[in-house]
Amino acid sequence: MDMKYFLYFLEIARAKNLSRAAERLYVSQSALSQFLAREEAELGVKLFLRRHNTLLLTPAGQRYFEACQDILDRKNCLYQELASLETCKVGSMAVGITPQWGCEMFSCIYPIFQRDYPNYTLKLFEDTTFPLMAMVRQKELDLAILAFNRMDGIPLRCEAICEERFVLAAPAAFCGRLPGGAEGGGPGFPVAGLGQFSSRRFILSRRGTAIREIQDEMFAANGIEPSILCEINNFDAALRLVAEGLGVSIVPLSCARPSPQVRYFFPPRPWSWKIGVAYRGHFVHSAASAYLLELVKLYFHEQRGASPLP
Question: Lower CB count within 10 Å: N or C terminus of the chain?
């Protein structure tokens, strides 16, 4: 069977609707309908249950879905291996990045990558950690550069790049007699506990994100039920609200931009997350993907000051 038909089937299963799948594939709905009818007739089984305008995989359809994924995955791996053997600099890769620092990172490293791989295409997908992990699991992405609360128990092949601590960011007007200056806690910031800001409102990340898991764990460890001003998935925007005196936030150390309106503190207990890469099943590094990962590591170590892992 033509490889494009595997792609047709996978897109129908993901879209759960022939019309949406046709739009994504740039083919007619009738072509997809004919393909699906022909495939079910040839196999002698139903691959989908029709419920109104929704197509749901049957047990046979689920097995067929997994086989299509596996076939295309093996094809991609073969092409990557051949490209690597020939040191070929032509190809493409689907890469997931997070909205917090992904665009800034790629604006720094992509010009370097393009200089050495001018004919290599990177297809970027931006989302938060958990949706990107699902895309890697479904093999819609080759790899994703993510922040993890913890890496144990993740059902994906992952590689940790570095570790980054968190700091409390508070309006200078809130801080009163809290310690200032560079003493204690680490370079540049003093130590202050969350309890010292428990009466204030907090600017937190959206629920269902890796950083919100950490923020919630920090509050739970201190026995605090926070009063939430707003939930926002952008550290720069959160710090602008802090600078306006609207609340306290918790941000990664690399985002702690100097500001006369904002004071930063390390919590007494070090809290951190890991930056890492999650790979789809059977992923094999090519020369291009290995080079891209080296640029990512350099960015986090040199541009964001994150601590390298042993």
Answer: C
